[in-house]
Task: structure prediction
Amino acid sequence: MSNKFNAKKIIIDGIKFDSKKEALYYMQLKAQKKAANLNDRVLEIELQPRFDYKIEYSANGRTFSKKGFYKADFKVVYHNRIEIIDVKGFKTATYKRKKKIIEALYLIKIIEV
Result:
């Protein structure tokens, strides 16, 4: 089965990934859980973390409100940091817009691999 970008879904550990690239990244994270170096060792892997948002803005004397959400591919907890990861093959305009909103509202940096 493939999606609109011709990425083939793949199942690993009973988890369905949207692409082979995303599944391979998951396998790399699992390997990092066994790392000897504490700073590089993955402590926790969260799949599809959801970030909700609500923004309000004014235009032409009117106030507008927009709600939405963004789902990253992974939230990775290390000993000394947390990373939000999105495995990308193609960056849509919607993705770019939501990425900017989430980075600004949550004061985070989304890492694209």
